[in-house]
Specification:
The complex is a heterodimer of chains A (about 220) and B (about 220).
Chain A: H1 2-43, H2 46-61, H3 64-74, H4 84-109, H5 113-121, H6 126-156, H7 168-179, H8 182-211
Chain B: H1 8-12, H2 14-48, H3 51-65, H4 69-83, H5 90-115, H6 119-127, H7 132-162, H8 174-185, H9 188-219
Helix pairs in contact in B: 2-5, 2-7, 2-8, 3-5, 4-5, 5-7, 6-7, 7-9, 8-9
């Protein structure tokens, strides 16, 4: 049994690399899109605010799995042929973007109005207000939930296995298909996911403590 | 676009979606009910227990929360029967998994709620001569529930959405019904539009109902 698992390790490592790559892509892309749309939600004109609100509330209201099947099977129907890898990454990114929008809204919303007004009073432009006044303060509110959300991205990435992408989850299933050692391999997989995510949540707790001395 | 929407086939097979939704709800309700019991018992135990018990509960919570649900579903359905002499159907297996999974999330919710109960209330309970058991039942738990209701609603809705994972072990819930129609009729866009709408409407009805409960209990404060 042990021999078979050891033999499969390089294969699992490849899957693990795909898991990390998918997670990284999703986290980075959703951070960019989410911050932009989040600023649109807080400061944008009414139509944009409405569009972002509807986007966020819709996406967060459906299971990621359904979103992923929708993107993967649905896009070719409207003439867009994405390889399964990118279909999966897009679906996960859409979901994460909606979450990032909410983190940003929460973080920016927690900054007292007076800050923004004071910045306006000393003649800062909108962009300067965001860069020098709002974002530096909102950052510490944004960071802990966002890092917590990164663990969700790593966990969510396991769903890409359902589109036939050989991530860690799929690699484990394939090794089980060959060796019939279901329990040891699932436990091994669980431990790998746990190690990554637990490290991330420890980091987020540390950051939270690091920023907790600041009080309004 | 070159794709004409045609919902006829969806309506013809709508029983797959409707039956699926009902099963999703059933899975969610049973698992959440078991999860709430696990969560309450462990949270109350945690706040009054010694180091060792706390470590064990924390290990359970941290382990479950940091592993993908889909892996746990596979582990219980395909892995567990190879080491223990048990036989169970896919729905039972999923309910078992989601209960243990939701329990871990709910322990956290209840624990933070219990810790947020003001110390003065417990002292007041002691002052009027309530026994520890009465203090728990009449002071701590009601106050904790009121504090945790918003977080609780979010967890419940999120767990309802998680029932879609049951489709990977062929439990015929809503997502599975959608896939069945997808593969058998190829009305892909239509079936996922309808499915999405069904998840959204159900989720928002749950949210609305839970907000009503929250408001009612907020008023009592």
């Amino acid at each position: 049994m042990l021999g078979q698992i050891l033999y499969a390790l390089p294969f699992l490592a490849q899957g693990f690399a795909v898991t990390l790559w998918v997670s990284l892509l999703v986290v980075v892309l959703s951070l960019i899109a989410g911050v932009l749309l989040g600023v649109g939600l807080v400061y944008g004109p009414a139509p944009l605010r409405w569009a972002v609100r509807i986007f966020s509330d819709t996406i967060r209201g459906i299971p990621i799995l359904v979103l992923m099947f929708f993107v993967y099977y649905g896009l070719p129907a409207i003439g867009l042929h994405l390889p399964s890898f990118w279909a999966a990454v897009s679906a996960l990114t859409l979901f994460k973007t909606a979450q990032v929008i909410e983190y940003l809204r929460g973080a920016v919303g927690s900054i007292p109005k007076g800050q923004s007004e004071a910045a306006m009073a000393i003649g800062l432009t909108f962009r300067q207000r965001l860069t020098y006044v709002i974002f530096p303060q909102a950052f510490r509110r944004f960071l802990p939930p966002w890092i917590n959300g990164v663990t969700d991205a790593v966990k969510g990435s396991a769903l890409v296995s359902l589109l036939g992408i050989t991530d860690l989850m799929q690699a484990i299933n394939q090794v089980i298909g060959r060796t019939y050692e279901a329990m040891p391999l699932y436990i091994l997989g669980a431990l790998i996911y746990f190690a990554v995510n637990y490290a991330l949540s420890l980091a987020s707790r540390r950051l939270e403590r690091r920023f907790s001395f600041i009080r309004e | 676009m070159g794709y004409a929407l045609n919902f006829n086939l969806i309506w013809r097979h709508f029983d797959k979606l409707w039956g699926g939704l009902l099963l999703s709800l059933e899975l969610a309700v049973i698992s959440i009910a078991i999860g709430v019991v696990i969560g309450l018992v462990l949270a109350v135990w945690y706040v009054s227990a010694g180091r060792a018990v706390r470590a064990v509960i924390a290990a359970y919570v941290e382990f479950i929360r940091n592993v993908p649900l889909i892996l746990l579903v596979y582990l219980v359905f395909y892995g567990l029967p190879t080491v223990v002499d048990l036989a169970y159907s896919a729905p039972t297996s999923f309910v078992l998994t989601l209960s243990v999974y939701s329990g871990a999330y709910l322990v956290e919710v209840f624990r933070s709620g219990l810790e947020a109960v003001p110390r003065g209330q417990l002292d007041a309970g002691k002052a009027i001569g309530l026994t520890p058991w009465q203090r728990l039942l009449h002071v701590r738990l009601p106050t904790m529930l009121r504090i945790t209701l918003p977080a609780l609603s979010n967890t419940f809705i999120s767990l309802f959405k998680d029932t879609s994972i049951a489709s990977v072990i062929s439990v015929p819930e809503l997502t599975f019904g959608a896939q069945w129609i997808n593969f058998n009729t190829f009305r892909i866009v239509e079936v996922y539009l309808v499915t999405t709408a069904m998840y959204l409407v159900t989720g928002y009805i749950m949210l609305f109902g839970l907000r009503l409960v929250e408001r009612r209990f907020r008023a009592a404060r």
